[in-house]
Amino acid sequence: MDFGFNDEQHEIKSTAREFVADRFKPEKVRELAESETPYDEGTWQEMSELGWPGIAISEEYGGQGLGVVELVIVQEELGYACAPSPMISNAYAGAVIEVAGSDEQRRRWLPGIASGEGRGAAELTDDDGAIVGAAEGASILVLAEGEGARLVEPGAAEIERVGLIDTTRAYFRVSADDGDSLPGDVSAAVDTGMVALAAELVGVGQRALDIGVEYAKEREQFGRPIGSYQAVSHRLADMLWDVEEARSLTYYAAWCADAKPESLPLAASMAKARASDAAGSVTHNAIQTLGGIGFTWEHDVHFLLKRARVGARMLGSARQHRERVADLAGLGEPAATPA
Amino acid sequence: MKICCLVKEVPDAAVQKRIDPATKRLDRSGEKNLNPFDTHGIEAAMQIREGDAVQVDEIIAVTMGPESAVRALHKAVALGADRSVHLTDAALEGCDVCATGYALAKVLEPEQPDLVLLGQQSDDGECYTIGAVVADHLKMPSLTQVIKIEVEDGKLVCERQAEYGYDTVEVDLPAVISVGDAINEPRYPSLKAIMGAKKKPLDTKATGEVGIEADQVGESGSKTQVLEINPPPTKEAGEVFEDEDTNETVSRIVAWMDERKLL
């Protein structure tokens, strides 16, 4: 049995890696993170021409008709570059509408979300309340409503930018009295959102690991690269273990979303819990490996740490997901979807 | 117009390159990719098609390589080629640039292309010469390092990079053109193109099917022979001037350069 990606998935990964590396170079990410408009519309248009916004949306609604595995492949690469992009908020909005929307709601909103021309933005809860990624400029907002969700047009909402520590992405608080309720169960879409977020965190962790390893090979102390000292190399080995385990769980959860949906709730929470912890730990350890330079604004690693910290709190913290895993494994009462 | 794009499967840029001491050939194991320089050739073909100077009926990606090279062809069609041709045969193993050029020319002959495009070099062997060898066998004019192509009255007007600046050259068709990487920025394949790549026609050819003579290819048919491989000579250690007094350091550097007639 082959657990690897197929040829097309390899090609999607390779294309995503090349595109993201070219369009989201570190200096570009820094420039956007320090500007008032953190998304480059031109780059979003290019991503749209490649079909990325509709990657997991059905062809019936103008999407590519691929799966969560392909979405995860792209999200991991975007995470690696810490890319300022509305991709995840748009993809999550599309997933919620496709899973829980009525036929009319799907027909109205999904083609724009899939093409990227009518972006969606979805609420990604954190401990302090609801925040919405990339709400400004979106055509439709997907907000929580009890256990479900509702659609709100931007004109009917108050949108206020929130200054989170992660400046590589724009976050907003949105308030709206009314909205168009989605009739269906959103839980499968929320699980998909968790898996996409986990993939992004895996990418963030991989980049931090690569930065740490590269530095440990080059930086010399007492005539030897610092990576030759166990205090450093063991730390790097732990970082690799963190990233690989989070990646395996994330890929498995993505496969479940596409092929074994009954296992998705457990797999999604396992992936999100592990990826949240891993990204936090690996970015922290990368800074420790870098020593003094890691603490400066000049080095990019702090962007990764901040993205990891914010991403870890979205759609449920690691602790909430561990509790859910325990419940789903029969160790307690079933928990509500942490969203 | 029919355009053939020569492409090659090469080790991924991230893979550390090494020579296999047993075979004295480049170790091509590990992750592979389409030669990035060839993507400029495909993009040039696409831009000719999308321009209004000439009607391009077909763009064909052609490669010679092992079974795995099919992935490079899939990427080439994802980037815009209409179909692909794969020359693969155990007899081709060990071909040098002369034998490879001969074999590729034999595959191209029945296609009767009006234009053959390829990247200026491969990312592994970096010979820069395959285009000229192919052109010689096909009896076509050849240009290298081309960074601008315009189609005018059934001819090409090309700008090519030279040591002293740029040449503007008019070339009759059919021709073989190797393009420099400054010619364009290759597009990225869309998801739809990636997913549809395997549905486009792919012809797999063996040496016998295209009239390749066995004694002209492979290691025995190659004109070159690798006798020995050595690392480049190590450079002498440089002289380090410690900067304790900048004025004095500058004077010492100037004197050092003057002594060697570098000023």
Structural class of chain B: alpha/beta
Task: Provide the CATH architecture of the domain at 187-328 in chain A.
Answer: Up-down Bundle
Which structural class fits the helix and strand makeup of chain A? alpha+beta
Low-confidence stretches of chain B: none
Radius of gyration of chain A using CA atoms only: 19 Å
Give the full name of the CATH homologous superfamily of chain B: HUPs
- Strand fraction band of chain B? 25-35%
Largest sheet descriptor of chain B: 9 strands, mixed
Structure description:
The complex is a heterodimer of chains A (339) and B (263). With 339 residues, chain A is an alpha+beta fold. Chain A has a domain at 187-328: Butyryl-CoA Dehydrogenase, subunit A, domain 3. Chain A is 56% helix and 12% strand. Chain A has helices at residues 7-23, 26-33, 41-50, 68-80, 87-100, 103-115, 187-218, 230-259, 264-290, 301-313, 318-331, and strands at 120-126, 129-133, 140-145, 148-152, 158-162, 171-175, 180-181, 220-221, 224-225. Chain A has a 7-stranded mixed sheet. Chain A has a two-stranded antiparallel sheet with strand order 8-9. Chain B is α/β, with parallel strands linked by helices and 263 residues long. Chain B has one domain: HUPs (Rossmann fold, 3-Layer(aba) Sandwich). In chain B, 26% of the residues lie in helices and 26% in strands. Chain B has 7 helices and 13 strands. Chain B has a 9-stranded mixed sheet, sandwiched between helices. Chain B has a two-stranded antiparallel ribbon with strand order 2-5. The longest helix of chain B is centred in the first third of the chain and has 15 residues, at 36-50. The relative contact order of chain B is 0.17. The mean pLDDT of chain B is 93. Chain A binds chain B through residues 7-8, 10-12, 14-15, 18-19, 46, 49-52, 55, 64, 66, 70, and chain B through 33, 71, 74-75, 78, 188-192, 194-195, 197-198.
Summarize the topology.
The complex is a heterodimer of chains A (339) and B (263).
Chain A: H1 7-23, H2 26-33, H3 41-50, H4 68-80, H5 87-100, H6 103-115, E1 120-126, E2 129-133, E3 140-145, E4 148-152, E5 158-162, E6 171-175, E7 180-181, H7 187-218, E8 220-221, E9 224-225, H8 230-259, H9 264-290, H10 301-313, H11 318-331
Parallel strand pairs in A: 1-3
Antiparallel strand pairs in A: 1-2, 2-6, 3-4, 4-7, 5-6, 8-9
Helix pairs in contact in A: 1-4, 4-7, 5-6, 5-7, 7-8, 7-9, 7-10, 8-9, 9-10, 9-11
Chain B: E1 2-6, E2 9-11, E3 19-20, E4 25-26, E5 32-34, H1 36-50, E6 58-64, H2 70-78, E7 83-87, H3 97-108, E8 115-119, H4 130-138, E9 142-152, E10 155-162, E11 165-172, E12 175-179, H5 191-196, E13 202-205, H6 218-221, H7 246-259
Parallel strand pairs in B: 1-6, 1-8, 6-7, 7-13, 8-12, 9-12
Antiparallel strand pairs in B: 2-5, 3-4, 9-10, 10-11
